[in-house]
Amino acid sequence: MKSLRDTMLNKDRMKLPISFDASLMQDEYLKLQLNAFEYYNVIQLRAPAHLVDTSLPMPAPVSDYADGSWTEWLDTNDLNKSPYLKSIIDSFKEITAVKLVRLLRLAPNSKVKEHNDPTLGLVVEKSVIRLTIPIINNNESYFYLNNNIVDMKPGECWYLKLTDAHHVVNAGDTEHLNMTIDLIPNDNIKTLIEDSFLESILIN
Q: How do strand 141-145 and strand 148-149 relate by DSSP bridges?
């Protein structure tokens, strides 16, 4: 018989009991010097140290890159000039190590093909997990996980089991924008996700 923790670890989606002001996030995003793009575009907010500060040496090769320990990670200029976005990232830094942080832009009438990310799940040892915060959405953009839509609203914070198959469809006429935060799933994060799971059981 599966334990409650085993059931929680294998659940493919959980909305965390925290949320952020999507309008402030969008305002700061629009103040960045945005490049025109087709299909898909990424804005780095935290990145490997040697890419942020080019005076630093490249890290030595390692056999396993999954947990992000192969390099130091630094806030980028785009994050440092975005105080609200930075405050969100700093709030996670208080409880765990934050690695890669990005703004993911999907153009109108575009899609991200179905794929999986083999290291992005609580079931994977010595890895990171990815939290997703939608910022800009429309009524015709959908995130599918295991062929079921994840109904994520702007400003909400979600854990998604991205080791499972997922894809994104934006059939609308505006871009779709998420912020993703890769972090170490320490006891603080696991407790936060477990509390979300228990709350969902009580509600349902």
A: antiparallel
Strand partners, 148: 145
Q: Which tens digit of pLDDT belongs to each residue from 173-190?
A: 999 999 999 999 999 998
Nearby residues of 185 by Cβ (< 8 Å), 6 or more positions away: 96, 122, 127, 128, 129, 193
CA dihedral 41, 128, 157, 201 (to 10 degrees): 140
Residues 6+ apart with CB under 8 A from 100: 44, 46, 47, 68, 73, 128, 180, 182
- Do 154 and 135 meet the contact criterion of CB atoms below 8 Å apart? yes
Residue type, 165: A
The CATH-assigned architecture of domain 4-56+63-203 is Sandwich (2.60)
pLDDT tens per residue, range 9-57: 678 999 999 999 999 999 999 999 888 888 999 999 999 999 999 999 9
pTM of the entire predicted model: 0.93
